[in-house]
Amino acid sequence: MKRGAPVDDINEDDLLVGKPKKSAAGLKAVEVALERGIAQAGVTRTMQSLLRLNQRDGTDCPGCAWPESQGTRKPAEFCENGAKAVAEENTLRTVTPEFWARHSIAELATKTEYWLGNQGRITHPMVIRPGDTHYSPIAWQEAFDLIGEHIRATTPERTVFYTSGRTANETAFMYQLFARSIGTNNLPDCSNMCHESSGSALNPTIGIGKGTVSLEDIHTAELIFVVGQNPGTNHPRMLSALADCKSNGGKIVAVNPLPEAGLFNFKDPQSVSGVIGNGSSLADEFLPIKVGGDLALFQALGHLLLEEEERVPGSVVDHEFIATNTEGFAAYRAARKELDWAEIETATGLSRLQISTVAQMLVKSKATIICWALGLTQQPHSVDTIKEIINVLLLQGNFGKPGAGACPVRGHSNVQGDRTMGIWEKPKEWLLAALDQEFGIVSPREHGLDSVETVEAFENDDVDVFVSMGGNFALACSDTEVLEASMQRVGLTVHISTKPNRSNVMHGQTSLILPTLGRTDTDDKHPGGRQILSVEDSMSCVHSTQGRLTPVSEHLLAEPVIVARMAAATLGPEHAVDWKAMADDYDVIRDHISRVLPGFEDFNKRLRTKNGFILPNPPRDTRSFATDIGQARFTVSPLEYLKAPEGHLILQTVRSHDQYNTTFYGQDDRYRGISNGRRVILINQDDAAELGFQDRELVDVVSTFQGQERRADKFRLVFYPTPRGCAAAYFPEANALVHRELVARESNTPGYKAMTVRFLPHEEQVRQLS
């Protein structure tokens, strides 16, 4: 098969729409996974990487953060999208200096992210300076000296260090240490844009910002809610765990505006039933909720549980657990005593019967897990919604017992580990004090910028240096057009990347691209030989990861080495931190971590055990809650939901099946029946008719927020079974419609699931008709 870079970009006029699928995975997933891998990297390189993926002493998947079993693992411990992620990294396509010489920035700016990312791996460090039209090669040391010059020429508060969730623990620890050694807590990361709302709700209510379940709990739960989440595309290996739950007698409730194939039927390609049978039926109940209606749903469920407890005392509420471990129950019970069912039905789009049916499933369950993802975290009232979920779990004592707990399903591999390592703009005093004691520095105490605040700082010309460790900030954030324009006014942007992306094109006046090793590449250019790294999965297990493939270029550097050399060039040889020692031997980094971070004692030894180790989790381990009051906290929130004025809909963003965040593997959203295009709006047929539009009609989309408008042109309407009043579009194409001030309260997460939009006939189309 041809392994050359694609030459054709997406042509939205080639859009194909078929019927949505009714099952996920199966042989088709295997076929697509192998096809993508072989096309990018060939047979040998593909098999070498896939057979080691998520295996002990192997490579942790660079896709999602779903955990691996502590027991027996399958020979193929990966999913279709994990295989696609590996194919993207293993590719033999290369982006050489000749590529940058052929393509000007002006030309690259016209390309989509799909085209840019599919060109291949960057082979050399590159630079563009004021007045240049093309990137050109630069020597590594010259690049580091340039970074040091720019950072020293400005003040710490005007320097920003962004990081993506794929960064390993050791790199993340060094990165935050570098930022704090300079004197800034400007450490925005992708958590700000996804699960920040989860942490903002969980920390004050249960004392930890992480989930409280293990993979084994998923298997043994009596009841699992999957809320605002599409595991078939975003976390496909979760389907296997849900299927195990069903085979053990558990039940599953799916709550989602869109009927996603993976929520209904899973065809495990490693089982007979998944290959030639009907697969595993998953969701026992499906609630097609309106976007933003989840707070109302969980308030109604809490009301019904308390109502049943009043009818049959002792049948539902765990009074002993509540009396011993919680505070605020009386106020919560009083707030949920009465319910306006008409408003609940309006808010959710569900009937009282549908909600009551699910409430009875809760009543009968003695071990319940509630899982959620970005469908809940990216609305103004997201934090209150997740607090309401905690209320329902606390009612029945669903913490610290098998098969029960809270399960925020994290996205990017090691996004949770980044935060554990100290990548946070609002660090706790204990962390800063520990860093100061360990390294002899004075860490800044003033809080820094999160991702949304960084967008505002760009717009206000308050950033002189922007360093991005992975990720694609320009495309991932809200208010895209405003952000891209302001990023180009920054003095220096630095992108530590494996492949080209939009942020490389929307660069600062001076810009560096520093090519790095990927997760699957061998990292052996050290005095002590080959190095290993570590990651933390979505359920707090820390384990090793190491690549074994020959890098596509001898000019790539490992991320810890890049951080160390940036720091040395900026801070000088007299700085208190021995950066070179950490870059030479990652065990040195882990020794530092073991003395700074609780739970990482004897890090190097425990990392090399069979399964790594699991970090302490008081709600799960000891049924204790390290909040400010030493107990779990019931909370009371007012009813809130999203309301669109007449002529408008509520628009949410979703991923296609051929992407992971801002990385596009292909042009197909197979399970939703959409291919060869991305600029689509999934819309209820009745809403379209009421608004005067037809299926496949081209429209321009206008969002409104506090009297301000944002616009994105040339989207095609596609009829789809989504609740009335709601619509969906792909991320990040719709990001330009999200005003930067449309955020979740408390967490400041962008409101990607809360846009108020209207449609206009596409202007070009109107001109042609006239």
Provide a quick synopsis of the model.
The chain is α/β, with parallel strands linked by helices.
Low-pLDDT windows of residues: none
Number of domains: 3
Order of the strands making up the biggest sheet:
6-5-18-17-16-7
* Highest-level CATH class of the largest domain: Alpha Beta
- Biggest pleated sheet: 6 strands, mixed
CATH topology of the largest domain: Rossmann fold
Q: What Rg, in angstroms, do the CA atoms define?
A: 25 Å
- Gross geometry: globular
Describe what this molecule looks like in 3D.
- The protein has 770 residues and is an alpha/beta fold.
- The chain folds into three domains: 111-194 and 414-616, Rossmann fold (3-Layer(aba) Sandwich); 196-408, 3-Layer(aba) Sandwich (Dimethylsulfoxide Reductase, domain 2); 649-769, Barwin-like endoglucanases (Beta Barrel), CATH 2.40.40.20.
- The strands form nine sheets. A six-stranded mixed sheet has the order 6-5-18-17-16-7. The chain has a six-stranded mixed beta barrel with strand order 23-31-28-30-29-32. The chain has a five-stranded parallel sheet with strand order 12-9-8-14-15, with helices on both faces.
Task: Describe the structure using short key phrases.
single chain; 770 residues; alpha/beta; Rossmann fold; Dimethylsulfoxide Reductase, domain 2; Barwin-like endoglucanases; 3 domains; 6-stranded mixed sheet; 33 helices; globular
What's the helix and strand layout?
Layout: E1 16-17, E2 24-25, H1 27-41, H2 43-50, H3 80-90, E3 94-95, H4 97-102, H5 105-108, H6 113-117, E4 121-122, E5 126-128, E6 136-137, H7 140-152, E7 159-163, H8 169-182, H9 196-206, H10 215-220, E8 223-227, H11 231-234, H12 237-247, E9 251-255, E10 265-267, H13 272-275, E11 280-281, E12 285-287, H14 294-311, H15 319-325, E13 326-327, H16 329-335, H17 341-348, H18 352-364, E14 368-372, H19 374-377, H20 382-395, E15 405-408, H21 415-420, H22 429-439, H23 451-459, E16 465-469, H24 473-476, H25 480-487, E17 492-497, H26 502-505, E18 510-515, E19 533-536, E20 541-545, H27 559-571, H28 579-584, H29 586-596, H30 603-607, E21 613-614, H31 618-621, E22 632-633, E23 649-654, E24 659-660, E25 663-664, E26 668-669, E27 674-675, E28 680-683, H32 685-691, E29 698-705, E30 708-719, E31 726-730, E32 755-761, H33 763-769
Helix pairs in contact: 1-2, 1-3, 2-3, 7-27, 8-27, 9-20, 14-17, 14-18, 14-20, 23-25
